[in-house]
Amino acid sequence: EPEVTQTPSHQVTQMGQEVILRCVPISNHLYFYWYRQILGQKVEFLVSFYNNEISEKSEIFDDQFSVERPDGSNFTLKIRSTKLEDSAMYFCASGQGRGGETQYFGPGTRLLVL
Amino acid sequence: EDQVTQSPEALRLQEGESSSLNCSYTVSGLRGLFWYRQDPGKGPEFLFTLYSAGEEKEKERLKATLTKKESFLHITAPKPEDSATYLCAVQAPTSGTYKYIFGTGTRLKVLA
Q1: Could you report the per-residue pLDDT of B35-86, keeping only the tens digit for each?
Q2: How close does chain B come to A15, measured CA to CA in Å?
Q3: Which chain A residues have a beta carbon less than 8 Å from that of B7?
Q4: Per-residue pLDDT, A101
Q5: In angstroms, what separates the C-alpha of A61 from chain B's closest C-alpha?
Q6: Phi and psi for B60 in degrees, rounded to 5?
Q7: What are phi and psi of B3, to 5 degrees?
């Protein structure tokens, strides 16, 4: 069964450093998403991406964040200058349709900012 | 303010003891309500999407229902492998686009 994959599984970085989180969505999916989950808190929507552009984003997704689909398979989330409060589990998801359709989540990248 | 509230926060059941999880929502317009299962250290796993009041979906021991204010996830004769956190999320319109709002989840433990 096809699945969403994410790398790395864990990332430790120093405050102020840039990080890039990588995702390989399911191959025939057209919609891509990033979510985050701070330890012990709810899952929070960050951004959705379709047709090589951002279609929706939350208040959390400020200028420090960017997304890119650099080739036909990868979908990346970049955090330009990490803050302590960026420490969280970041989930990538992909889907065939917009929102109402099934979203398949990856296993997540646990980011720790020191 | 748009919000999603799940109850109870945690639930312990004996194997075979049926129960229901609640997700109440306050949004300006509902495009869809989603139920997910999340195991520790893993990403949410999609279970159901509900679009309109009165709609019901079933999958094995799980049944999701939707009213205009809340959704229930009914678990019939649960087994230990049903132990997980169950998440509810809604998609609602905002400023010409859509936003996704998750609840904090219900941690379910089913004892053998």
Answers
A1: 999 998 889 998 999 999 999 999 999 999 999 999 999 999 999 999 999 9
A2: 24
A3: none
A4: 62
A5: 12
A6: 55, -120
A7: -155, 160
